[in-house]
Amino acid sequence: MHPILFKWGLIEIRFYGLMYVIAILVGSYLIKTEVKRKNIRMTDDDVMNFIIWTVIGGVVGARIYYVLFNLSYYLSNPKEIPAIWHGGLAIHGGLIGGILVAWLYLKRREVKFWRMADAVAPVIILGQAFGRFGNFMNGDAHGRPTTMPWGIVFPPGSIAGTEFPNIPLHPTMLYELAINFLIFCFLWFGLRKKGHRDGFIFASYIALYSTGRFIVEHFRADSLMLGPIRVAQLVSITIAVTAAVLIISKRLWEPSTKRG
């Protein structure tokens, strides 16, 4: 595995960036499909602008979140702050940034947020699956040393290989890739056309992903920490419980009669 797919002179294409491009291209098609199916009043141009701004908000939010929990390092190395190709995008920060920008954009267009959120939720988790493959090739978001037969030794020069040279590690990026893809299949093929109340698919995505992330985080070696607590586990369990309470209290699984 190697983080660089292609290099020609000063031109360099990395798997990390390529996965984001693929996620955006595939996601754009799927979101447009859902917007039309759900009769959401947005043109193709509106959808593309929504995607662009939401992705920007997500990336900025993910980086700010990560930097804040590694503030001493980035204050000493300020040039590394924009270097997202070196790793360091926290999904919880990305969700905060993306949701905030999406809410502002949809409010201006007078589009129902939760209806659009349901259209986007399966695409978000699919994009996260693509992103984890980028992490795998980049050698970041890696796991702890393991004696399991599927442990992977990451190459010298990668983040994982530098921290644990010649030591098999849990391929936590692949664990999460598999979980994320299964969640996508469940949301897209199992729930999408059932006609539940607005917000059910998005809340289900949040609950399922957070549960999976809580489990995978146990095997991570590069977790953001708050004292002895793994931040991602604390945030994940809080979000998962909140989403479950919302589903139950609002009876979101019930059929919806709303349109538009």
Notes on the protein architecture:
The chain has 260 residues and is mainly α. It has one domain (4-249). It is 62% helix and 5% strand. The chain contains nine helices and four strands. It has a two-stranded antiparallel ribbon with strand order 1-2. Strands 3-4 form a two-stranded antiparallel sheet. A hairpin with a 2-residue loop joins strand 3 and strand 4 (229-230). Helix 1 (15-37) packs antiparallel against helix 5 (113-138). The model has no long low-confidence stretch (mean pLDDT 92).
Total number of beta strands = 4
Q: Main sheet: which strands, in order across?
A: 1-2
- pLDDT < 50 runs, ≥5 residues: none
* Helix content, binned percent: 55-70%
Written as H for each helix and E for each strand, in order along the chain, the element string is: EEHHHHHHHHEEH
Radius of gyration: 19 Å
Class by alpha and beta content:
mainly alpha
Major β-sheet profile:
2 strands, antiparallel
Mean pLDDT: 92
- The total number of structural domains is 1
Strand content: 5-15%
Per the principal axes of the C-alpha atoms, what is the gross shape?
A: globular
Separation of the first and last Cα atoms: 46 Å
Tag the structure with descriptive keywords.
single chain; about 260 residues; two-stranded antiparallel ribbon; 9 helices; 4 strands
